[in-house]
Amino acid sequence: MKDMTQPRAVPKAINWNRLQDDKDLEIWNRLTVNFWLPEKVPLSNDIQSWSQLTPDEQTLTIRVFTGLTLLDTIQNAVGAPTLMQDAITPHEESVLSNIAFMEAVHARSYSSVFSTLCQTTEVDEAFRWSADNEHLQAKSRLILDEYDATASPLRKKVASVFLESFLFYSGFYLPMHWSSRARLTNTADLIRLIIRDEAIHGYYIGYKFQRGLERVSEAERKEIKDFAFALLFDLYDIEARYTEQLYDGLGLTEDVKNFLHYNANKALQNLGFEALFPDESCRVNPAIMAALSPGSDENHDFFSGSGSSYVIGKAEATEDEDWDF
Amino acid sequence: MAGLVFFSSRSGNTARLVERLGLEALRLPQAGPPPELDAPFVLVSPTFADGEGRGAVPKPVIRLLNNTRNRALLRGVIAGGNRNFGATFALAGEVIARKCSVPVLYRFELAGTETDITRIRAGLARFWAAQESQTCLTQA
Ligand SMILES: Cc1cc2nc3c(=O)[nH]c(=O)nc-3n(C[C@H](O)[C@H](O)[C@H](O)COP(=O)(O)O)c2cc1C
Ligand SMILES: [Fe+2]
Ligand SMILES: [Fe+2]
Questions:
Q1: How confident is the model over A135-151, as pLDDT tens digits?
Q2: Contacts of residue A23 in chain B, CB cutoff 8 Å?
Q3: Which residues carry out catalysis (chain A) (predicted)?
Q4: CA-CA-CA-CA torsion for A301, A306, B22, A203, nearest 10 degrees?
């Protein structure tokens, strides 16, 4: 606990040439080369596509994006900074400061979409909607309560991985859905940049969680695992209702729920835990999967037996010297 | 059945998948010299590309395959990854396949699902059986 009468200790200057954990540098390098800004994406090419959505579809899209903005705002202002206090290595703090900044970029990008495609009044209305939306508020509350319960660094990381790797996906579904129908494809490109960042965030915080878990007693490990599954159940309940509210109108609720199950399992894997939802409940429309990773399914693989063609490269005459991939 | 060799970084997803397969497998060391293999093998490797697709194949895997004898024994690759990385999903598999002219046998996300485990087990059994009968034919 912080003793308020003591002056703050002067931190040690960070030396990146002395690492306690190689992952810190690996992730730092990847995050920094992946850096981007919304100006990189030609959002204005979506103006025509936007005008072809119905008013209801437009309202839904703006609302979904304000919901996503809220999560990025929380992660920028509270999530990443609060994890910094628990950092084991100084390099972890630096990585988290990069994560914090990218969350601000993500939050800012949604406003770029809005200013390119939408009317100010519609956007203001949607921000009011999200501030009043009981489900968005409830999930934020659950996460923030963990961030504020400073006693357990491990619980904070669980909450943070669920935000990064689970809570965003009820929202991310919609731009992937539009993209699979050749709508708002530039916006989808921007969202894919965000999804990629969130994947590294969830991975890294989950990785640090696993390192932390190794340091505690068996009893405590069990307690944290029980906590994680209980929190996921609570969040899932909220997400299911939020999903119905958003997607019943488009008839997509069932598919979005499958997408939620699929992502919940991946969030658990980031924490090093086994899946919760059975595979049958995770079968997402293949068009959505293809929209997530465009172009990567062109070659069938051998074991799926789905096609005759599978990647078998032509032998490249490689010298050992140029055998760097 | 012949060999299974894998790399998994400290996040351990690939290791958890291989453990659930329940097959004997050799884990590549994070650092230091690679093992010298003496039998045909299938490689399981995760992907760690940057946004442009560079650096997809982990260093320990590169070191393994830089040894020409090891490379000659490689029969196929199973690639790990995460679809959230978009176009570079499981890219390590493709890069290795191209460089070594072997097939990408399968791709999975993180530590895999139950379906993945079933498919990989069955697929490996079929694959090695097919390899065996091929060798018999060429020897006959
Ligand atoms: C920095 C970083 C970059 C990654 N890049 C990719 C990628 O380009 N494509 C992909 O499919 N997965 C990518 N992944 C996901 C990993 O392949 C995945 O998390 C894998 O399960 C890691 O395996 P391991 O835990 O056995 O080391 C990346 C992960 C990290 C941390
Ligand atoms: Fe974000
Ligand atoms: Fe994030």
A1: 999 999 999 999 998 77
A2: 9-11
A3: 110
A4: 60
